[in-house]
Design goal:
The protein has 635 residues and is α+β, with helices and mostly antiparallel strands. It is built from 24 helices and 17 strands. Strands 4-1-7-9-8 form a five-stranded mixed sheet, with helices on both faces. It starts with a helix and ends with a helix.
């Protein structure tokens, strides 16, 4: 790309680097979900790539990456492992944070610069893509500040899909790079698959030749991309009943437009883009927002009412808004181009003026996050000092064997009673910092045991309330000040709880702890109140990557909890003889004891869906590679 086009990109990047340096710099962030995302990266680096790999550290165990898109963490594992240990997990996470923060600006700039033929004309759209918040999960607030980095990274890949697929509108063959790009988007965050798929379909519809034939090719490309993701997606679909949908968002388009004048202006410009296009690529971009609006409306009106909440409309809407930014950037760039030709004003000056107008329109609703306040972007080091986390970790290391239950999902960073006040889920790092498995202490999670903690039962049904809304109010589905010691002891016994950590804010609502003779209270540690169970508890001990052992007591024929979350990949044995297993009343794995003696072995191994998924992905990769090779030879 010519220097004249790179200059505006460097300007946007300079702003982005200044913002990033002020917000998080070279530190490990601790705000909101960042500690948990960091833990997930550590899980993949330490335990391996298989999505169904068991995570024993949260929620009595869970196949963490099977039910959360693994692409972001695979990228981090490539960096950490590819450096042969020279780059540790913390530095890797910080690098991914920088990449994710800047990616939407870079990709949007490159896409618009290609369409408009000018880097300056692409500048306003790139700046908006960089700084857009407006309640988007993938925006600055949700995708960077809160820590939903996978959503933002996949969002930033959508312009790359556009650049890969758009040439198809002028050719008869689907660009072969589009297929793995679709797979990467799906693995990074499936909420953006509808937008990526819409781009491929639009490219098919806009090109020469038979539309029926081209749409068939588009469907074939989408199927091949799905095959590439089958190692993750096929077991995900097969095991869907062992997770809980997170459906706590709400789509409110009228409220969004009323609160954000800039978004309304972008929609107007996107409508202008439909009136005139210079190329098939222009046509794709101009139609993109309206196709996505139809997709979001169908999701909200038809799919969600059926109870299919795995791709909530408020998440899919992020793709619609980026499509709007691209179409508005295209229309706005064309208008600036004509204005420059008529008035003789420099394109650079007009582009900077248009960016200033966008900033002015964003101010009433805070649509763009223009600059970070250092106090709102706390680092892990600062939080560790302020909360005396070192003392808490030391106390938990010395607690009796067993899991640690946190009464809250996180820790507030400011005084007040609002659920949305600044907070951190830093206690999600307890397994790394104290070597103790935990229940709760993390963000809203799709585990059945998390559903047990949130609503009092682990059965089917979406989790519709944010964990932060329950903090200080409810635990195990009961009001915190109404939970009795006997009920708590039942859950604590089944989950293998050895210690409980509460906050001093909740001191008046902890009768189930304070009046419980089974617990002993330790001296306060900063804002933390620590209770330890007097009776010992037993958890499975890991003997090998796929094998645990636990001593269980009971009569032959009795069903006994193994204190592990139930999942169909588990089997139980004693002395080489299999034991029957079942799902317990709280979502735990129960084994039926035999007349044998000695510990029970729990074996965790991939099943048929996992093996089939790997096979389908391998065949998909071979098919894609052969097709790519034949195409190159033909060219």
């Amino acid at each position: 790309m010519a220097l004249s086009r790179l200059g505006p990109l460097l300007l946007v990047l300079a702003y982005g680097v200044a913002f990033g340096a002020a917000a998080f710099g070279r530190t490990l962030p601790a705000f909101d979900d960042h500690p948990g995302q960091f833990y997930r990266l550590h899980h993949v680096v330490a335990r391996g790539w298989a999505p169904w790999t068991w995570n024993p550290d949260w929620w009595a165990g869970y196949p963490e990456m099977q039910f959360y898109p693994p692409g972001f963490f695979y990228l981090g594992a490539l960096v950490a492992r590819g450096s042969f240990g020279l780059i540790d997990v913390a530095v890797t996470y910080q690098s991914l944070l920088w990449l994710t923060w800047l990616a939407p600006a870079v990709t949007t700039f490159l896409a618009l610069a290609r369409l408009l033929g000018s880097g300056w004309l692409a500048l306003p759209g790139a700046f908006i893509a960089l700084t857009l918040s407006a309640g988007l999960t993938s925006g600055v607030e949700g995708g960077v500040h809160v820590g939903m980095l996978p959503a933002r990274l996949a969002w930033g890949l959508l312009p790359v899909v556009l650049m890969a697929a758009a040439p198809w509108a002028e050719d008869r063959r689907l660009p072969w790079l589009t297929v793995p790009l679709l797979a990467v988007v799906a693995l990074t965050h499936p909420a953006h698959v509808p937008a990526a798929g819409a781009l491929v379909v639009l490219a098919a519809w806009s090109g020469p030749g038979s539309r029926l034939h081209r749409l068939g090719a588009a469907v074939g490309g989408l199927v091949l991309a799905a095959a590439l993701t089958a190692f993750w997606a096929l077991p995900l679909l097969a095991r869907l009943s062992y997770t809980r949908a997170l459906a706590w968002g709400r789509l409110a388009p009228l409220e969004t437009l009323t609160a954000h004048p800039l978004l309304l202006g972008l929609l107007v410009l996107a409508a202008v883009a439909t009136r005139r296009g210079r190329s098939p690529s222009d046509t794709i971009v101009a139609r993109f927002p309206w196709v996505m609006i139809a997709v979001v409306a169908a999701d909200a009106a038809l799919v969600e009412p059926l109870g299919l909440l795995w791709l909530p409309a408020d998440r899919v809407a992020d793709g619609a808004w980026l499509a709007t930014v691209l179409a508005a950037g295209l229309a706005g760039g064309r208008l600036l181009e004509r204005l420059s030709a008529r008035t003789g004003a420099p394109v650079a000056a007009l582009a900077l003026a248009a960016t200033a107008v966008a900033i002015a329109l964003s101010l009433p609703g805070g649509t763009l996050t223009l600059w970070p306040r250092a106090s709102q972007w706390p680092s892990y080091a600062a939080v560790e000092r302020g909360m005396r986390l070192g003392a808490l970790w030391a106390a938990l290391r010395g607690a009796p064997p067993g899991r640690v239950l946190f009464v809250r999902s996180g820790v507030p960073l400011a005084y007040g009673g609002e659920w949305w006040r600044p907070h951190t889920h830093v206690t999600a790092l307890t397994p790394l910092r104290a070597g103790r498995a935990i229940v709760h202490g993390t963000f809203t999670h799709p585990s059945p045991v998390a559903a047990l903690v949130y609503r009092g039962e682990a059965g089917p049904g979406a989790i519709t309330t944010l964990a932060e809304r329950l903090d200080g109010h409810r635990l195990f589905g009961r009001p915190l000040d109404g939970l009795d010691a006997a009920t708590f002891d039942f859950f604590a016994e089944r989950l293998g709880i050895a210690a409980v950590v509460a906050l001093d804010e909740d001191a008046g609502s902890l009768r189930f702890l304070d009046d419980n003779p089974a617990l002993a209270r330790r001296p306060p540690l900063g804002p933390f109140l620590v209770y330890e169970r007097r009776a010992p508890t037993t958890l499975p001990i890991r003997m090998a990557p796929d094998r645990w052992t636990i001593t269980l007591s009971g009569q032959p024929g009795e069903w006994v909890s193994t204190r592990v979350t139930y999942y169909p990949l588990w089997r139980a044995e004693r002395g080489g003889a299999p034991l029957a297993t079942r799902r317990g009343s709280i979502g735990d794995l129960e084994a039926r004891l035999d007349a044998g003696v000695g510990p029970v072995e729990l074996v965790y191994a991939a099943g048929a869906p996992e093996a089939a998924g790997v096979l389908v992905s391998a065949l998909g990769f071979i098919a894609w590679s052969v097709g790519w090779g034949l195409r190159r030879r033909g060219d």
